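FW: tagging you since you asked about this chain on Friday. Here's the raw sequence from the shared folder, copied in full. Didn't touch anything.
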Amino acid sequence: MNRLPDAAFLHRLADAADEVTLSHYRKRLDVEAKVKPGYRFDPVTAADRDAERVIRSIIEAEFPEHAVLGEEFGEAGSGPTKWVIDPVDGTRPFICGIPVWGTLIGLTIEGRAHMGLMSQPFTGERFWATETETWARGPLGLGRLRSRETEDLSHAILHTNSPERYPDFPEIGFAGIQQAVQMTRFGGECYAFAMLAAGQIDLCLEPSLQPYDIVALIPIIERAGGVVSDLGGNRAENGGAILASANARIHEAALRVLNS
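HL: got it, structure written out here
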């Protein structure tokens, strides 16, 4: 029997993770550097590890038949249903005290993103997707998410976390897309993807993501009316070079520029 969680269980996981991450946030932290290809500095803290441990412990107690993939402790278990977790997506802004990091909790079935949640506990915001809908809750209240209807790239807002890695990916037409859009902003981590679903940003581009960086965000964006794919137009659950767009038409236009 393939038991599945409800939205309340996603929030239960996020509540537990929030308690851990906030206990470390804007405190003096011991920061370690992981070895990660393409990165000069890839930080990890006790907040990352402790939050992933608490999420895993709750999943294992409630759904022991589910597999789990997390950034800090890898993959455990097997089967068609898998949790994909990034306990602190945006460790760099976390250690800088800038609240654009978040906890990402995703669920895949047969490799396809099914449910997802992003929690930013310092601002008191949650963004989540059930099987059919996507929601946000925060200081402005509770409401459904809806992405923008922008179709012309010249009117679009593009977000990418940093320009520093694009020289390593000359096949991505980053300079071209920058010239095509109205403006480009940097440094938003997973929060920028949530803002795309919320109708504030039109395009989010990242040259090299891992599954735990994107799986939780896919259903949030898709059920808000957006599109997420790799630069070949394929499903994004396996990571790589990823484009998220507010709608299908601007997604197609951006892919043409990025691949030209």
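FW: The mean pLDDT is 94.
HL: agreed, and The chain is about 30% helix and 30% strand.
FW: great, closing this out.
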